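Long-time lurker. I teach an intro course on protein structure, and each term I like to show students one example going from raw sequence to a predicted 3D structure in token notation. This year I'd like something fresh instead of my usual example. Would anyone be willing to generate the tokens for the chain below so I can use it in lecture? Attribution to the forum is fine with me.
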Amino acid sequence: MTKQVKVYSTLTCPWCRRAKEFLKANNIPFQDFDVASDKNAREEMIKKTGQLGVPVIDIDGDITVGFDENWLRQKLNLPK
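-- Reply from a regular --
Happy to contribute to a lecture. Here you go:
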């Protein structure tokens, strides 16, 4: 079963780019929301996390703030 992955990011965030590159490299489909230009996505992200830090990665409702490769591998059942 495919997990639903959402990435809340900005275009200027280097950690956001790394997170999205990691997902692409592992063939993980994801939705990308630019919270700098998308007010609704920004409000949704703040509601989920209570803060403005990016990237915010939501995998089936489990949330992490920042790029944490070990967390991503665990949640997506990827080998280390």
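Some talking points for your students: The mean pLDDT is 96. The radius of gyration is 12 Å.
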